[in-house]
Design brief:
Layout lengths: L35 H4 L13 H5 L21 H4 L29
């Protein structure tokens, strides 16, 4: 129990989170993911499920592609027609670091 009259908010009384306790990444098939209702009942994480061998080697067929025997067509985008490499002559140059620690800015958000 932390005494509020002594606390200065430094966080020294709180133990650090062990490395890796929060970041626990696992690779698994979407069809084998655990439902949230099941996850809420856990006290500890279950053992990792092994991936099928064809998924690990990358030889598994992609279920999202239809079996037509043709490769999917992609639309080519020409960046030079849609974007400009430099700003127009009338554009102002960018201003950076105008509002730092010594010159703060205050904004009011409505909505």
């Amino acid at each position: 129990m932390v005494r509020a009259d002594v606390c200065n908010g430094c966080g020294a009384c709180l133990g650090p989170c062990p490395t890796g306790a929060i970041d626990n990444w696992r690779t698994m098939l979407k069809s084998e993911a655990y439902p949230i209702e099941t996850q809420l009942l856990w006290d500890e994480l279950p053992a990792s499920l092994p991936l099928p061998a064809d998924v690990e080697t990358g030889t598994a067929p992609d279920a999202s592609l239809p079996e037509t025997g043709q490769e999917p067509q992609t639309q080519q985008v020409e960046a030079s027609r849609h974007t400009s490499p430099k700003a127009p002559w009338s554009a102002a140059h960018p201003y950076v670091n105008l509002h730092g620690v010594r010159a703060p800015v205050t904004a009011t958000v409505a909505g």
